[in-house]
Amino acid sequence: MDRRHVEMKKLLGNMLNVTTDSVTATIEGLPIRWNGETIKPSSPISPNIVKQMLWELAELNFRHDLVMLDKRVDLSHMGRTDRERLLSMCWEGDLQCADFWKAEDGIGSSDIKKRYSYLRSLHHVMTTWRGNDSLGVLESLPDHLNDHNFHEQLERFETVLAKLYTRTFLRFFGRAASIPFHLSIT
User: Fold this and answer.
1) Domain boundaries, the chain
2) pLDDT at residue number 23
3) What would the mean pLDDT of 113-126 be, rounded to a whole number?
4) Closest to 118 (Cα-Cα) out of 78, 168, 54, 162
5) Buried b vs exposed e over 90-113: b needs ≥16 C-beta within 10 Å?
């Protein structure tokens, strides 16, 4: 038995030595929890929890789509660790864990000023991509938060950046890119 199998056996206990029916019965008896709330299989899931789950799926899909696209089109010749660090600046938290309590702090924030640093990071990532000649349009990233028309400039910038990202993704993968969306935490 290899080391990984032994570790999994420790984690799962005796469930590895039972039939499918008894595994199902064992799992059915366990409570289902989402962010501290217990979900009863016999009851409908609250709309708030459903929104949280869908937000997390969309956020994680966006992150992984971005990483996957970057691997295909990046021309920077950066080391893997440096590139991963640069990419991680495009979202709040780490690649594998989207914390919905921080949904208002990341690229999906409803506040354009909170999205600014993430959009700037995404722009920086995209400037190294092949086939993104249109990024010259984005040379004028607004950088003065107190300018009288900062919001309008940043919204235009975000729109152009989003179009370039989604078009590039479609061109290389033949499907729509996953994109972040806003989640109001109530």
Assistant:
1) 3-30, 47-173
2) 45
3) 90
4) 162
5) bbbeeeeebebeebbbbbbbeeee
Are the C-beta atoms of residues 100 and 185 closer than 8 Å to each other? yes
Q: pTM of the entire structure? A: 0.78
Question: Do residues 108 and 59 touch, judged by C-beta distance below 8 A?
Answer: yes
pLDDT in tens, 63-89: 999 999 999 999 999 999 999 999 999
**Burial tier of 180 (Cβ tally within 10 Å: 0-12, 13-18, 19+):** buried
The DSSP string of 33-86 is: EETTEEE-TTSPPPHHHHHHHHHHHHHHHHHHHHHHHHHHHB-S---HHHHHHH
